[in-house]
Amino acid sequence: MNSRLISIHLFYLGVNNDDIISVSEHCLQLRQLDLLGSSIINETTIESILKRCLFLQFLDLSFCEKISDETISLWKCQYKNSFKRSYSPRSNEDIYIEFA
Length: 100
Description:
This protein has 100 residues and is of the alpha/beta class. The chain has a single domain (7-98), classed as Ribonuclease Inhibitor (Leucine-rich repeat, LRR (right-handed beta-alpha superhelix)). It is built from four helices and four strands; from the N terminus they run E-H-E-H-E-H-E-H. Strand 1 (7-9), helix 1 (17-26) and strand 2 (32-34) form a beta-alpha-beta unit. It is globular and about 30 Å long. The N and C termini lie far apart (48 Å). The model is unreliable at 94-100 (pLDDT under 50).
């Protein structure tokens, strides 16, 4: 992995938590990470990126099912990074309530 990478876009790709952990260990100069649509990436993995990639300026977690809005709110206070979330995943039950 190229340690000089500053931007990674992983839209709907089959990346897993180990892949992102590897990014956090080897791409310390990372400035932008787009994980749009990941249904696998969890909060612990994102926490590793936030702690290790100190130059990160933009993190897109739109459609990431395992990342809660509450956790993103905490991260916004704790880290300087800019977070983007176009869509917050909802459970199927919430969808039925929303359109009832």
